[in-house]
Amino acid sequence: MSRSREDHPTQITIGFAAPDDGGASVALARLHGDVRRPESLVRVGFRCRPLLALHGRDVAYIAVEAVAAELLRRGLRSAAFSVADADLVADLAGRRAVPASLTIPYVRLRCTLNRFAAVSVEAGDEGSLRDLTARARAEVCLSIAA
Asked: What is the CATH number of domain 5-145?
């Protein structure tokens, strides 16, 4: 019996950045193993006013949710996300309580991820994540300067 390539989840590495004032934010997602293309880069804009007490944790939730929603819109049904935020990974694994200020972003992210036929979220490779994050930060900085 043959298996379709869709049985193997598309590997998605996400880097993101958001300005402190809640302006235009960006997430960059590198897709590996997509059934339509061997590798591609997806840019997703989103808005987020980071809460300083969360040290960017809220931005991670909103960025991953924005990327996941865009990929679902494009027809992707099986995904393995890699992110730099180990707290987000632990939260989704259900290992601890989520701070009250993350309740709504957590629920939104969970609902979006549940729309995939198969999905995982793991801590990713530092090098690849660093590159995408640096590119996202550069875009955000250029947007602020413009």
From this structure: 3.30.420.10
